[in-house]
């Protein structure tokens, strides 16, 4: 049986980074369930060679770790197309606007603006490392975001647009989230406005070769310490205090274990002795969002001829937001749309052809009949992915932060927790995944050096 210092579960960007931070000082092994690295980051290549992210893809200002990683790995970024007019498609009519907030009737606009201002002011008062410590945390954690929206938006249109923003950021419904979690999430990424924005916001830049390409470069540096097709099945404490990790096809012994997989996947692993009841209860209360990412390829980005950016907001759905996802330097035009929350849950159970038609019908409503006839189409239902079962990230419902959140990042003996769901900065983003990897690696290094298990 292989004996190592550190085992890492999950070869997503967080697990790979944790291993990179530890590999020069300790023996490390990554166990990945899939036959690929990247986790929730995944590339798709169209027939003409265009590469597109069908998982996480964007980085923006404030995500300094990600920009450093891109530079370190010799990759490059380019801005998402953000020129021309955006569209609000409402009651069968298309209205052009610029910026993040659609141009709507003055009453609804003032209503939405005031609600956004209140939300941002509340979020600014939170410490994202300790959201449960705010003096109003218990009150905010006791209600859903939907309750808050209904109380703070007087017009139906403002409520609709706020809900679309929630879907775009969380891939969930306002009913799913506690108000405290929504405030924390926004604060962890600076502000809700930044999370929604393109230029100057979280959707500003893309990475040449795709984000999964970064993971492939990281894995190449790690070499044979990355083991694919090896889902962990059981983690057992041995008599000498080490951990035995049984996985498909083998087992290993390690001094420390970093779990860098989504909470719903960690629940599938048998622990002996069992994890503390609070940890199990916490992970049960962290369901993943629901998202289907859809991309259509056309001969060229014809919507630009009409000075349109490709960005659309549409309460009618099922595609409620879209973007021009064309690859820089390529001729093809790529339209990308999201199915999120309840819509994603519905279309997850629909035949692929029917789902494709529903998406293209939306694109045609946004950009005309040409959008109904792409050269190629691809979508990715992350809720049906067996090793993910949801995207973008886990969320916390009412009562969870104040009951369990203080111990979210706490190690359980020799078991440490990474992944974007344990981040205090940019929770739910690749930046958060890297931040959590740094923390977990630091915890492990301190403990191993204290124990004298140093392998140079």
From TrEMBL:
InterPro entries per the UniProt record, alphabetical: Amino_oxidase (IPR002937), FAD/NAD-bd_sf (IPR036188), Flavin_amine_oxidase (IPR001613), Flavin_MAO (IPR050703)
Name this protein carries in UniProt: Monoamine oxidase
Binding site for substrate: 338
Domain Amine oxidase: residue ranges: 13-444
Signal peptide (from-to): none
Names of required cofactors: FAD
Gene3D superfamilies: 3.90.660.10, FAD/NAD(P)-binding domain, Guanine Nucleotide Dissociation Inhibitor, domain 1
UniProt GO MF annotations: oxidoreductase activity
Protein family per UniProt: Belongs to the flavin monoamine oxidase family.
Binding positions (FAD): 14, 32-33, 421
Pfam families assigned: Amino_oxidase
UniProt entry keywords in alphabetical sequence: Oxidoreductase
Keyword Protein transport among UniProt keywords: no
Keyword Membrane belongs to the record: no
